[in-house]
Each structure stands twice: as C-alpha cells, then as structure tokens.
Amino acid sequence: MMFFLEETLINTLVGMCITYTCISVPFLFVKFTEKNSLLVKCGLGVLVGLASAYIFRDGIANHVALFSVIISPITFGFIFFGYPVLIFGIITSTLFIFGDTSYYDVFSVVYFLCLVGFHLTKRRGMAYVIISYSIAQSVNLFSHVSALSESGYWQLAIAKTSLSLVFLMMLYFAFGKLLDLSTSQHYFKKASETDPLTGVSNRRSIDLYLKKVEQSENTQFCVFMLDIDNFKSINDNFGHPFGDTIISTVAKLIKKNIRSHDFVGRYGGEEFIIILNSSLDNALPVAEKMRVIIQEHVSETDSQESVCVTVSVGIAEHASGSPVNIAVANADSALYKAKTGGKNRVEVY
Ligand SMILES: Nc1nc2c(ncn2[C@@H]2O[C@H](COP(=O)(O)OP(=O)(O)OP(=O)(O)O)[C@@H](O)[C@H]2O)c(=O)[nH]1
C-alpha cells in the first residue's frame, strides 16, 4: 500500500511537472503574433502528447497523471477553439465517472461546468479559467482532506495543490500578457481598417481587399461606385453634423442590402465602393433595389424636418484576368454617366 502511494505521488509529480511546464513555457517565452499562434497551438499539442507518452511509458495507468494530461490540453483547446473541445472534455470526464470514480473525476467535471458557466455569463478571458480552476481545485483539496485517514495520502494532496497554485500563477502572468497583446492588436488592426464615421472599410482596407480579390480565384464579381447626389446642398442646408448622419445612414442601408461575403468601403467623402460577388445580371437588380431603398428612406433633422437623399450608381463587371483597378475605373466612368445623365440612377459600364 505504502509503495503504491509513493509511486502514485511520484507519478503525479512527474506528470504534473511535465504537463504544466510543457504548457507554460511556450506561453511565457513565445512572443505571440497572429502568424506564430498556430505554431504554438500545434507545439502545445505535440508537447502534451509527449508528456502523456512519458507518463504512460511503463504502462501504469496512473489516474492522476491521466487526469492532468486530459485536463490541460482541453483547457487550452477550449480557450483557442471554444465549445467543441469543452464538450469533448465533459464527455471524457463523465465517462471516467461512470468507469472508475475518483475525486479527480469529480474535480474535472466541476472544472468544466465552471468553465461553461463562466463562459455563458460572458467570459472575460483567463480570469474565469483561473477562478474556475481554483473552485475546482478547492473541491479537490476537500476531497484530499477527507481522505487524510489513508496513510500518506496527505502528501499527495499538498504536493498536487502547491503545484497547481504555482501553475495558476504562471498561467495568470502568461495569459495576462497574451490577452493584453491580442486585445490591443485586435483593436489597432480594426481601427486601422475601419472608417470611424460609418464603420465600413476605409480606403486603406479597400486597397487591401482589391489586391486580395485580384489574387484570388474568384473571378466573378462586380464593382459598384455609389455616390450621394447633391450632398453639398445637404451640408449647406442642414449643417455638417446632419451631413455626417446621412453618410452613415447610407452606409447602413448599403450594408443591410448586401451579403456577408460582399464588401463595402467608404471610397471618399460621400462615395462608397461595393464589391458584389455576382455576375452583372444578378448585380444590376441589387444596385437598383439599393438605389430605391435609399431614395425611400426618410431621415429627420433635429428640428423634425424630413429629408430624403438619392444616390447614383456606376457598375462594372470584372473581366477575368484583367487588373481589378480597371473594373474600379470603369465603375467610376459609369458613375460619371449616371451623374451627367440626371442622377438618381444606375448605369452600367
Ligand atoms: N458632412 C460631411 N460632408 C462631407 C464629408 N466628406 C465630404 N463632404 C462634403 O460632400 C460634398 C460633396 O460635394 P460635391 O463633390 O460637389 O458633390 P455633390 O454635392 O454630392 O454633387 P453630385 O456628386 O454632383 O451629386 C462637399 O461639400 C464636401 O465638403 C463628410 O465626411 N461629412
């Protein structure tokens, strides 16, 4: 009995040290960027796999080591890949419960349930993982305390709990850094690509998108250039702030009337570019419908005056193999035609 417990203790320490170190080291020392995060995920998978291979090298199905091998990758899998991995974790630990119940199984189920609960109540990153891990760890600790009568078992409880605490601290600092970095990176990336007034893509993002579609295999798309008619008079009659409201309203109406895989950007002051992933035959009715919806939309000024605006649209179909800038220039020519032809109309190049 004594020998078994010592062996369990050694296995536990080795298993936990290897697993936790394997997982913590990349998070502490790898500089996270979008490019290498995939590499890190793969690296983690390999390291955890190696750790489990080491733990089971003598064919000792140590429940405790098995637990730490299961729980760690699932935790990280959940953080990176979300619910599917978490559900897998719950199923795995439930199977253990029905197989050979141990306190560790209870621990893992509590842990996963906490994670789900925290996630459902709006997950705030790693803080929830740490809180839920701590709650589950406390359950685990109680289970150990209640088993103190078994000779030597307390060593296991103390060793495991202190290791867990060290691991939690490492996680806390590593993930704090990671979350700060990814949040600020995400914020600055979004800000650099979005037009602040309308929330649609800005000129920089338009250029990037055009370059991307030019290189992609999607050869069938149409370019719309859409311009608000007589916009100067809106500014002159109702003021610049109301003019801004009109621009963002038109952007919203455009967005509402295109699909998620189409694209809209603010090309200039009151001019928008739309890339519709359709043939000209299908794109033409979309442009016409958009024009009518904008024309029929009524905006109200602060003094409850009703204002309607119209738009002119120029369309050009992208010719496969030709530079996308040609389609943009052609759509611009069609827009010019619509303006000089009396405005509030759609013209095809
Ligand atoms: N409120 C507001 N006005 C803007 C913005 N950007 C450009 N403008 C104004 O939009 C007006 C565009 O005027 P024009 O280029 O003459 O075009 P228009 O009056 O719409 O005439 P047509 O295009 O021929 O129908 C100018 O008065 C610009 O000052 C903006 O972000 N907000």
TrEMBL record:
<dbReference type="InterPro" id="IPR000160">
    <property type="entry name" value="GGDEF_dom"/>
</dbReference>
<feature type="transmembrane region" description="Helical">
    <location>
        <begin position="12"/>
        <end position="32"/>
    </location>
</feature>
<feature type="transmembrane region" description="Helical">
    <location>
        <begin position="127"/>
        <end position="147"/>
    </location>
</feature>
<keyword id="KW-0812">Transmembrane</keyword>
<comment type="pathway">
    <text>Purine metabolism; 3',5'-cyclic di-GMP biosynthesis.</text>
</comment>
<protein>
    <recommendedName>
        <fullName>diguanylate cyclase</fullName>
        <ecNumber>2.7.7.65</ecNumber>
    </recommendedName>
</protein>
<keyword id="KW-0472">Membrane</keyword>
<feature type="transmembrane region" description="Helical">
    <location>
        <begin position="64"/>
        <end position="97"/>
    </location>
</feature>
<dbReference type="InterPro" id="IPR043128">
    <property type="entry name" value="Rev_trsase/Diguanyl_cyclase"/>
</dbReference>
<dbReference type="InterPro" id="IPR029787">
    <property type="entry name" value="Nucleotide_cyclase"/>
</dbReference>
<keyword id="KW-1133">Transmembrane helix</keyword>
<feature type="transmembrane region" description="Helical">
    <location>
        <begin position="153"/>
        <end position="175"/>
    </location>
</feature>
<feature type="domain" description="GGDEF">
    <location>
        <begin position="219"/>
        <end position="349"/>
    </location>
</feature>
<dbReference type="InterPro" id="IPR050469">
    <property type="entry name" value="Diguanylate_Cyclase"/>
</dbReference>
<feature type="transmembrane region" description="Helical">
    <location>
        <begin position="103"/>
        <end position="120"/>
    </location>
</feature>
<dbReference type="Pfam" id="PF00990">
    <property type="entry name" value="GGDEF"/>
</dbReference>
<feature type="transmembrane region" description="Helical">
    <location>
        <begin position="38"/>
        <end position="57"/>
    </location>
</feature>
